[in-house]
Amino acid sequence: MRHYVWDNDRTRIPVSTHFRDLGCHLCLDGSGAGTTTSGRLRKATASVTEVTLLPDAQARQNQAVQSNILPAALYGIETTSGNKALINELHAAIVDAFGPRSVRRSQMGFFEIQKDGRELDPEVVQLVRRVSLLRRELTKFPEITGNVRLIFKRNA
Question: Where are the domains of the chain?
């Protein structure tokens, strides 16, 4: 479509394979481009570091990450495969900010022993958002249930 000439005036229709729409980045060509999401992840990683410098108690800092930084970082992540390296940087920044200072610390162990019900692990938050989106879509459009089951069966 991008290279098709439509008339004698050599008119071409501009075709976008990835773009930002309604705050999230849509990628339609399978390349995984998500510049909007990448920018949000970079900003969130810097914000986690800044939050730890505040004189507030750790519980308030933890709440700031859960209620402000993670939602801002992962907004629209349902439609784009987030940059794995940037998600790992955010992951490490959260552990550096709130985890133990030991040389032999375990990042996954830190996320497993969280006391409150809110999740700090960006990968878990991302999964929950994607599953929630899938459930909403299945509720709105029950006719796609068969296709979704077939996709799961083929990829399982």
Answer: 18-155
The residue to which tokens 């992951």 are assigned: 91
Cα of 31 vs its chain's centroid, Å: 16
Token pair of 111 as six digits: 């996320």
pTM of the model: 0.72
Predicted confidence (pLDDT) at residue 152 exceeds the cutoff of 70: yes
Q: What percent of the chain has pLDDT over 90?
A: 20
Cα separation, 94 vs 46, whole angstroms = 10
Short-list 81, 78, 60, CA closest to 69: 60
**Token pair belonging to 101:** 């200072």
